[in-house]
Known about the structure:
The structure holds 2 protein chains of 2 kinds.
Chain A: E1 2-6, E2 9-11, E3 29-31, H1 33-45, E4 51-57, H2 63-71, E5 76-80, H3 90-104, E6 110-114, H4 125-133, E7 137-146, E8 151-157, E9 160-166, E10 170-174, H5 186-191, E11 196-200, E12 219-226, E13 234-237, H6 243-253
Parallel strand pairs in A: 1-4, 1-6, 4-5, 5-11, 6-10, 7-10
Antiparallel strand pairs in A: 2-3, 7-8, 8-9
Chain B: H1 12-16, H2 23-30, E1 40-43, E2 46-47, E3 54-55, H3 57-69, E4 74-80, H4 85-94, E5 98-103, H5 112-126, E6 130-134, H6 139-150, E7 154-158, E8 160-164, E9 167-174, E10 179-185, E11 190-194, E12 211-216, E13 227-230, H7 235-239, E14 242-246, H8 253-266, E15 269-272, H9 274-278, E16 299-303, H10 309-315, E17 320-324, H11 332-335, E18 338-341, H12 344-362
Parallel strand pairs in B: 1-4, 1-6, 4-5, 5-12, 6-11, 7-11, 14-15, 14-16, 16-17, 17-18
Antiparallel strand pairs in B: 2-3, 8-9, 9-10
Helix pairs in contact in B: 5-6, 8-12
The complex binds flavin-adenine dinucleotide and adenosine monophosphate.
Amino acid sequence: MKILLMVKQVPDVSVSGMEDGKVPRGGPSVLNPQCEYALDAATLLKSEGDEVIAICMGPPSARESLFRCLELGADRAYHLCDPDFAGSDVWATAKTLSRLVLERESDFDYVFCGQKAADSETGQVPTMVAELLGVPQVGACYRLAKGTGSVHAWRERSGRIERYELGPRALVAVERGCNVHRLPSVSDFLNARRKELTVLTRQDLSINRDECGLKGSHTVVRNIHFLSSSREGIKLHLDDTSCAIDTVLRSVRRRGQ
Amino acid sequence: MKEESCSTCPTKSSCAGGCQRSEAELAEMYDLDADTTEGHMVWVELDYSTGMPELKEASKELIAKARSFDDQRVIGILFGPESARNAAREAFSYGADTIYHVRHPSFTDFNLESFTAGLTAVAERVKPNTLILAASDEGMELGPRTAARMGVGITADCTDLEMDKGVLRMTRPTFGGKLMATIISNTRPQMATVRPGAFPVPEAEEDRQGTVINWPMNPKPHIEPVESIASEEGACLTDAELIISVGGGIGNLRNLELAKEIADRLGAEMACSRNVVEKGWMDQDRQVGQTGNVVKPKVYLALGISGAIQHQTGMSGSQNIIAVNNDPGAAIHQIANVSIIGDVGEFLQRLLKRLDEEEAADI
Lengths: 257, 363
Ligand SMILES: Cc1cc2nc3c(=O)[nH]c(=O)nc-3n(C[C@H](O)[C@H](O)[C@H](O)COP(=O)(O)OP(=O)(O)OC[C@H]3O[C@@H](n4cnc5c(N)ncnc54)[C@H](O)[C@@H]3O)c2cc1C
Ligand SMILES: Nc1ncnc2c1ncn2[C@@H]1O[C@H](COP(=O)(O)O)[C@@H](O)[C@H]1O
């Protein structure tokens, strides 16, 4: 069984202060938490002879996230690293990632992704990759288990818990809370830097310059600003009158209509 | 577009038995092959929980929003059996001009593959300027899958949309909700998924008319769950209309019990901030925010919650926010519709007393 694991490196938003209104650059980065759950799931399902291949498109520093995957049990890794990939939107990202899969690892059985990236939080890359690879998908998966010749995937959708039995050639996007962190094996941990990590550029995959990165993107960020969702609210003092309680009960009962 | 349509079908009687025209025939009949993009298309999501197909609130919001963009046509597309035709009427009352009804008895259930194929086919025929979907569990899959099939851009989980001379300006939170980004698309249709609750639902205009176009389609094979059971937890929070949410300011377990009693009596769901989860007072599955649930109730009663940005990410889509916090400078007061500056414990006591009085008066 060949599992491809798509991982993203994200700025560590829990430490980088953004108080000055600037998006941190060159600050500490981490492996996207939900991707780490996908990695756990992949290594949990892996038996003798199976292969888990981590794939990341990102700047040179993203190499660290791939090493982390190798330390935690991935067998090989690809790093899509080229200045021409910079500025990719979800479309360009999905296009580039699926190009790699089709060119180099088209005999995959499963593709595992995180459901969302902690920085962009679009949650669209997995779905677009599934479409571009022409495989079905199960998103928002919170539990995975091995079946016979299949993978069992649990998800919640619109108030229902669904279980899928996925035969090979499917994509699973894994959400927070999927399975449990497993302790890495000592040999994986020690051998990580000796495992194969292939760096690929745009030319290695014969992608046109205007098909990737900022140029190949279909959406453009026009501006970024601080959240200012202030509403014109009514201010009441609890001490004043019983007016506060009246107001609350009235809107609660009318459900805000 | 010609006058005739399935709702005023030249062979009206045949519609009752299901319109069997091919896509090509339909295209010719309605002269749909316009070479410029025009109109705003909305995926109309249906709810069958009452037995009758009804529009989901989020779809009403989007239809009305699309109507407000400019004076272009609003085209809805819905999937469902014959009976879903009633929902078309409802869509007209919120502002749709034309409804494409992609019809099959099995389409009461979401079918990603069929819906993607249907949405792509209709969008390629109509060539709308924009195509918007609710960022529901289903819309979050149908949107990007369709965008990838058409090879166009899409912006996910928008909290605001603005139309500027045909260009859709899509605003969404990024970096865990700390920043807002405004994004435009350089492909057509301009696609977006929109967080439910982002826009108000207007009054329905009961007598508004529109055109229904039937689009027969056979379902495509897709993966189906081998097991599907109603989940009890979590779902009730994301779907709840009334939420009482407690934060660090609740202070003690006695106050928490009061809040729970009030929730019980008002039929509210309880939720909390991360602070309360960390104290071990409530379960993580009740947490609202960036690392918890995203809720969009009609009323969100925030008791002793500071309104940290990570918390706001999960609840700013609420229709009505009522905040009780003794610090007039707390961030929650800036996003609240009603702010009550005062002590939570006292507020709870007074509210409970009022409920008791009302009950006594009723007997
Ligand atoms: C990566 C990350 C993710 C996070 N995710 C989430 C998340 O998903 N959800 C979440 O909620 N938080 C999240 N947080 C934490 C968040 O930053 C805040 O710390 C948290 O929301 C604070 O909770 P609080 O407002 O209940 O508590 P506090 O900050 O302690 O605020 C208590 C409030 O109650 C008021 N108060 C005190 N006493 C009284 C009284 N007697 N009467 C009335 N008011 C009173 C105070 O004025 C204050 O405003 C996250 C943080 C990080 C770094
Ligand atoms: N640059 C990338 N390289 C590899 N995988 C990615 C990349 N961007 C997104 N993904 C995958 O898509 C998931 C969701 O990301 P997003 O759609 O950006 O929220 C991530 O958890 C990864 O699995």
